[in-house]
């Protein structure tokens, strides 16, 4: 049997019904984030915190962001 495919994700949770995934990577590709990557994600999270629903809808409308719907089981 092969190893399970595992991934890490960097998520910035917005208040409301959306969660924004900033970055996803396979554990086999990257063991840990560097200090500069961590700082960059923190800076980005601060910028995202200022977005409102209207901003998010605009980003989706111009295909800058994609929306991922949860699987219904």
Summarize the structure.
By secondary structure, this protein is α+β, with helices and mostly antiparallel strands. It has 2 helices and 2 strands; from the N terminus they run ββαα.
Q: How does this model look, in words?
A:
InterPro entries: HigB-2 (IPR009387). This protein has 73 residues and is an alpha+beta fold. The chain has one domain (7-61). The protein has helices at 35-49, 53-61, and strands spanning 7-13, 19-26. Strands 1-2 form a two-stranded antiparallel ribbon.
Provide tags for this entry.
alpha+beta, two-stranded antiparallel sheet, 2 helices, 2 strands, globular, HigB-2
Question: Would you spell out the secondary-structure blueprint of this structure?
Answer:
Layout: E1 7-13, E2 19-26, H1 35-49, H2 53-61
Antiparallel strand pairs: 1-2
Strand order of the largest sheet: 1-2
Oligomer: single chain
Distance between the termini: 27 Å
Label the structural class.
alpha+beta
Shape: globular
Q: Structurally, how many domains make up the residues?
A: 1
Number of separate helices? 2
Poorly predicted spans = none
Q: Describe the main β-sheet briefly.
A: 2 strands, antiparallel
Secondary structure: number of strands: 2
Rg value: 15 Å
Provide the β-strand percentage band: 15-25%
Provide mean pLDDT, rounded: 81
Order of helices and strands: EEHH
Secondary structure: helix percent: 25-40%
């Amino acid at each position: 049997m092969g190893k399970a495919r595992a991934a890490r994700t960097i998520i910035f949770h917005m208040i409301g019904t959306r969660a924004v995934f900033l970055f996803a990577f396979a554990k086999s590709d990257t063991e840990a984030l560097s200090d500069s990557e961590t700082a960059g994600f923190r800076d980005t999270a601060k910028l995202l915190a200022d977005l409102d629903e209207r901003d998010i809808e605009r980003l989706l409308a111009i295909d800058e962001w994609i929306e991922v719907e949860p699987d219904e089981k």
